[in-house]
Specification:
It is built from six helices and ten strands. The chain is α+β, with helices and mostly antiparallel strands. The chain has a four-stranded antiparallel sheet with strand order 1-6-7-5, with helices on one face. A four-stranded antiparallel sheet has the order 2-3-4-8, with helices on one face. β2 and β3 form a beta hairpin. The longest helix has 27 residues. It is elongated, with a radius of gyration of 20 Å. About 4% of the residues have low confidence. The chain binds a DNA duplex through α5.
DNA sequence: ACCCGTGTTCGCTG
DNA sequence: TCAGCGAACACGGG
C-alpha cells in the first residue's frame, strides 16, 4: 500500500531491521522485480547496511561494500512490501527477493503485482537514476512551497487532482493523498490547477503536509504497538478506513455533514471529494 | 466472467 | 523540449 507514508514506514522498518548488518546471501525468486540494466543483486553479498533514505516513494538504501559505497534503490510499485523473517523461516507469500543478513535476520521483498523494482546503484549515485532526478520537493524534507507549487501547476491545463500525481510537483503524493489533500484544502479536484489563487495554493500545500503527517502517524501507531526491537511490519493492515474521503463514496462529508462524498474518474483514476465544501 | 486497483514508463502525437 | 494520451506491466479480490 505504498504512497509516501507507507514508504516512510518501510524505511523506518528496514533501518531497525538491517542497520549495521551484513548481507550473507541473496535469493532472487522472480527476476522481473530486478530492474533491467543494473548490476546483479548477488553483488550485495558481503556489504553492510549503513543508510536508509527516502525521496517521495523511492527508497534509497546505502551500503558499504569493501569500503566502497553501494546503493540499493527500491520502488514498491502498487503492491511491494519489505518484510522481516528469521533466517530459515518459511518465506512470506509473494516473496520475490530474499536477503539473508547477519544475526539471523532475513529481509523479504514481497510484491503481488510485480510493479515494484529493485536496483543496485554503484557508488550509491542515486541522482543518476532519471526517476529520482526528476522528483520534486519531498513534503517531509524540503516541504511544499506554495509559490513553487503554483509555478508548476501553471504549466498544464489539466485538473488539479491529476496534476498532483505528477511526482515533479511534490514527490510522494499518490492517488489517496491527492484526494485527501484537496479535501483538507477545500478545493474542488476538477478545478484547473492553473486557476488556483495564492491563498488556495497555501491551503493545498498545508493540506498535503497534513494528510501525509496524519497517515504517517496512523501507520507509526500500528508498527510501534509492540515497541523497541520487537517491531513487526504490519502485513495485514486491518482496521477501519483511516481516510476522510478516499473510498467513502455515498457517505456524509465528515466536515460539513451535509454533502455526500462523491466518486469520479479523472485520467482513469478514482477521485473522492465533497461537492458541497470543496469549491 | 468481468471489472477494479495506494504506480510508473514508454511510445507516439502535436 | 514538453504537455498529453493510451497502452503496457500483472494478478488477486469482489
Amino acid at each position: 500500500m505504498p504512497e509516501l507514508p507507507e514508504v516512510e514506514t518501510a524505511r523506518l522498518c528496514l533501518e531497525r531491521w538491517a542497520r549495521g548488518r551484513q548481507v550473507r546471501g541473496v535469493l532472487v525468486r522472480e527476476r522481473r522485480v530486478v530492474a533491467k540494466g543494473g548490476p546483479p543483486l548477488a553483488k550485495l553479498v558481503g556489504a553492510r547496511f549503513v543508510g536508509f533514505d527516502r525521496r517521495g516513494k523511492h527508497l534509497l538504501i546505502g551500503l558499504h561494500a569493501k569500503g566502497k559505497p553501494l546503493g540499493l534503490w527500491s520502488h514498491l510499485g502498487m503492491s511491494g512490501k519489505w518484510l522481516r523473517r528469521k533466517t530459515g523461516e518459511e518465506p512470506p507469500r509473494f516473496s520475490r527477493v530474499q536477503i539473508d543478513l547477519s544475526g539471523g535476520v532475513t529481509l523479504h521483498y514481497a510484491d503481488l503485482r510485480l510493479f515494484g523494482r529493485l536496483r543496485l546503484v554503484p557508488g550509491a549515485a542515486f541522482e543518476k537514476l532519471p526517476a529520482v532526478a526528476a522528483l520534486g520537493p519531498d513534503p517531509l524534507h524540503e516541504g511544499v512551497d506554495p509559490d513553487r507549487l503554483g509555478e508548476r501547476l501553471q504549466r498544464s491545463r489539466k485538473a488539479v487532482k491529476p496534476q498532483l500525481l505528477d511526482q515533479r510537483l511534490a514527490a510522494g503524493v499518490g492517488n489517496i493523498q491527492a484526494s485527501e489533500a484537496l479535501f483538507r484544502a477545500g478545493i474542488d479536484p476538477r478545478r484547473p490547477g492553473r486557476s488556483l489563487a495564492r491563498a488556495e495554493l497555501a491551503r493545498l500545500a498545508r493540506g498535503i503536509r497534513a494528510s501525509i503527517d496524519y497517515s504517517l502517524a496512523d501507520l507509526r501507531k500500528q508498527i510501534g504497538a509492540t515497541g523497541g526491537r520487537d517491531v513487526q511490519y504490519v502485513e495485514e493492515p486491518a482496521g477501519p478506513n483511516p481516510f476522510r474521503v478516499y473510498d467513502r463514496a455515498n457517505e456524509p462529508c465528515p466536515r460539513c455533514r451535509r454533502g455526500t462524498i462523491t466518486r469520479l474518474i479523472q485520467d482513469a483514476r478514482s477521485t473522492f471529494f465533497c461537492p458541497r465544501c470543496q469549491k
